[in-house]
């Protein structure tokens, strides 16, 4: 029984961290966001809403500079001020913005947004528990192995989430009449941005698989759909 105690403590710690991070994320987003009011983008989003049989799609602007889109655990979709600025400056088209919103809608619809928060705290709990157990048998490198294993698992899970969200967005963009092209051109644009400004990697790319592989996956879908 005593041997199980550290593991139970680790799981408990994970649960507490989870509640805390959900609360903190929600508060941060509530304080620093407003609903997007852009007539041009609204027309595009209304077309996606119609394709989904929804009255409308609500999107919020999150007041930070890094180029990013995110889906909160409560299902709200956010575009950062930095991303919206790229659209206002004409660097990113309305259809390309729509493809980001479609991708984030995919994370919500497929249940990733909720699961990801659980993953994050679940990861902490797993990491702590593994480290505790492994350290008993292999002192010193036990923690290191626990970290490696947990990160590997997390990376695998988030990669497949990204491909699923891309596929969802491709289907929605096709149904709304935009086609898959804006998704592909956006990936290429964001990657060019990464190369021209070393060190300024858009956050949205950092948490996602390689551009070439994502474009290839989209083209495979297009070929399958005969687009
Ligand atoms: Zn994503």
From TrEMBL:
Cofactor info, note text = Binds 1 zinc ion per subunit.
| Occurrences of domain Peptidase M48 (ranges) | 38-221
The cellular component terms of Gene Ontology attached to this UniProt record, alphabetical and capped at eight, are:
membrane
List the Gene Ontology MF annotations in alphabetical order. Answer: metal ion binding; metalloendopeptidase activity
Query: Cofactors per UniProt?
Result: Zn(2+)
**Keyword Transcription regulation tagged:** no
Say which domain of life the source belongs to: Bacteria
Q: Which InterPro entries is this protein grouped with?
A: Mito/Outer_Membr_Metalloprot, Peptidase_M48
**Record Gene3D superfamilies:** Metalloproteases ('zincins'), catalytic domain
Q: Which UniProt keywords apply?
A: Hydrolase, Metal-binding, Metalloprotease, Protease, Zinc
The UniProt entry's GO biological process terms, in alphabetical order, are:
proteolysis involved in protein catabolic process
Question: What PANTHER family does UniProt report for this protein, alphabetically?
Answer: METALLOENDOPEPTIDASE OMA1 (PTHR22726), METALLOENDOPEPTIDASE OMA1, MITOCHONDRIAL (PTHR22726:SF1)
Family the entry assigns? Belongs to the peptidase M48 family.
What is this protein called in UniProt?
A: Peptidase M48
Which organism is this entry from? Pseudaestuariivita atlantica
């Amino acid at each position: 029984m005593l041997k199980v105690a550290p593991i139970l403590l680790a799981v408990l710690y994970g649960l507490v961290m989870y509640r805390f991070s959900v609360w903190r994320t929600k508060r941060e987003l509530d304080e620093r966001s407003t609903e997007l009011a852009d007539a041009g983008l609204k027309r595009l989003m209304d077309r996606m809403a119609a394709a989904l049989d929804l009255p409308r799609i609500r999107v919020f602007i999150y007041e930070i500079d890094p180029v990013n889109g995110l889906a909160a655990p409560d299902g709200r979709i956010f575009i950062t001020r930095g991303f919206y600025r790229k659209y206002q400056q004409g660097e990113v088209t309305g259809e390309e913005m729509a493809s980001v919103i479609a991708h984030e809608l995919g994370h919500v619809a497929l249940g990733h947004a909720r699961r990801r928060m659980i993953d994050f705290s679940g990861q902490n709990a797993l990491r702590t528990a593994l480290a505790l157990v492994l350290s008993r048998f292999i002192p010193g490198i036990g923690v290191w192995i626990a970290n490696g294993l947990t990160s590997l698992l997390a990376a695998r899970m988030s990669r497949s989430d990204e491909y699923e969200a891309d596929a969802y967005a491709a289907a929605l963009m096709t149904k709304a009449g935009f086609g898959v092209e804006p998704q592909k051109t956006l990936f290429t644009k964001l990657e060019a941005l990464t190369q021209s400004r070393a060190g300024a990697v858009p956050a949205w790319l950092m948490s996602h698989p390689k551009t070439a592989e994502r474009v290839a996956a989209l083209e495979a879908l297009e070929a399958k759909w005969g687009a």
